[in-house]
User: Fold this.
Amino acid sequence: MTDLRVLTRILSTSRRVAYVPGFRQRYVTDLDWEERALNRLPRRVRQMKHWIAFLAQYGFDVREGRILEVATGPGFDTRLLAALTAGALSTIDIHPRFSIGAREYPGYGRLHARLDAHVDGDLRFPPLTDATRYRFLQMDARALAFPDDSFDLVFCKSTLKMIPSPEQAMAECLRVLRPDGLLLVIDEPFTSVFGLCRGGVIDVPWAHVYLTEEEFKEVLPSEERARSKALENWRSVSRLTRERLVEATQGGAVLLSERYGYDDLPASFVEEVLRIVPELESVGPERLRIVEGELLFRKL
Assistant:
């Protein structure tokens, strides 16, 4: 990121923005998703083991616990959850193409085939065809078709930023949890430099923090699909703050723990953006470096 230029762009409202040509392209370029995912497998395994051990400290039973994963996506975390726990795992996604692990994407299909054959010590990934370990369902997180008190754990990673009403999804996650059940929310855009999911990234870092919707529309990429994705993400991410997530529980849960991961952004990059966009001073340089937040709730 050190070789990216930070330029000034003036919007029709006279607001100055930090415009970084090539910022979006660098982030969305993904030449070999399969190899990149496999290269990250040891790190992802360690990360999931950390979360499972962390949840066990708060009473989650890895042997019998009933798990709901909100948003299957490509199915990577689904496979990790199945490999590292022994309870019943249900996973939902609003897109039917993701309901079996996104196999219509060639890179995803190859990845899952390689995970099927992967053995590392005692670590084995149950195949996606194992109906005793997985239940794939097409479902909207804002209207879960499960009875109250159905799960011991709801695992919600990199999800809420893609849902137009994250507060509604939070309420549904808590509804389907049993009393004393755990909700783990792991998401990036609290003040992440990108803010949006991969398909929605634009060339204005932290734009979701300080731009109005009309101003945001002025800096969208030219491709219609990218414009639509970025705008959809912006509307959700603008509501995705720690304070709003806590408020969304409406007193039905207590925040047990929170932890934040920080991006290794060059200080010069942050300083230059702050010089151009003084509104970001109120956020603070350190908080701007947050790349991921981890919030654990217990249902009351």
